[in-house]
Specification:
60% of the residues lie in helices and 7% in strands. It is globular, with a radius of gyration of 17 Å. The protein is of the alpha+beta class. The chain has helices at 12-24, 42-45, 64-74, 85-121, 127-152, 165-179, 190-201, 203-216; strands at residues 3-6, 28-31, 53-56, 59-62.
């Protein structure tokens, strides 16, 4: 039986699981679910009503981090969590940094006003709204980019010498900013900007970005 991911394709947390499963070579189906109008019975799979939820035979799970750890235990190769204890913990920390620190600013205060709200209202973004969103980028996201730049250093990946859950999580969050027309400042954070270009070019990311862009991308608008 093919596993099912329940959620909206533009969610960075849904995208994280989709990219993770693609990198693992695991088949899945995506069942579209909006957290704003979930189907009846959705809370039986996701008790908090959040996306993604996940079913795999008789197993049902919620929360992207829990889903990925479950899949890692079921399918340990290729490894997407570092083997060493310290590296494993560091990868989990970077995932938490993005999920609980970065996304609460990048999502509600940048992506929502610049992409989701105008999509729902069919009204263009006002200059006032755009200025407020860019102020969040300058005041809150730039310091986080500085931290990520320091964590990446001169390496190709955030932890060790191979792709991990840390890289997938960082890049997935930034796809939403890309849709909003917000890029990592190359002049200030060249290594992080180059990392984004590399990850977005990977087939696992490129496939979902190409799928999402016609509906969600505001670049050039």
């Amino acid at each position: 039986m093919t596993a099912t991911i329940l959620g909206a394709n533009v969610s960075p947390f849904v995208r994280k699981v989709r990219v993770y499963m693609t990198e693992k070579g695991l088949p899945y189906t995506l069942q579209p679910v909006s957290p704003f109008s979930p189907p009846e019975g959705f809370r039986e799979v996701s008790p908090l009503g959040k996306i993604p939820a996940f079913t795999d035979g008789e197993v049902s799970l919620a929360d992207s981090s829990v889903i990925c750890i479950y899949l890692e235990r079921c399918h340990p190769e290729p490894a997407l969590y570092p083997r060493g204890n310290a590296d494993y913990a560091h990868a989990l920390w970077l995932e938490e940094y993005i999920d609980s620190g970065f996304m609460p600013k990048a999502g509600p205060e940048v992506f929502r006003p610049l992409v989701l709200a105008p999509k729902m209202s069919k009204e263009p973004v006002s200059e006032e709204v755009r200025a407020a969103a860019m102020a969040v980028v300058d005041e809150h996201l730039r310091p986080m980019w500085q931290y990520l730049e320091s964590q990446l250093g001169d390496a190709e990946f955030f932890v060790g010498d191979a792709l991990s859950i840390a890289d997938i999580t960082v890049a997935s969050a930034h796809v939403n900013l890309w849709h909003a027309g917000v890029d990592v400042d190359k002049s200030a954070f060249p290594r992080l900007a180059a990392f984004m270009e590399r990850l977005f070019a990977r087939l696992s990311f490129k496939t979902v970005i190409d799928e999402e862009a016609p509906t969600w991308s505001q670049r050039g608008n």
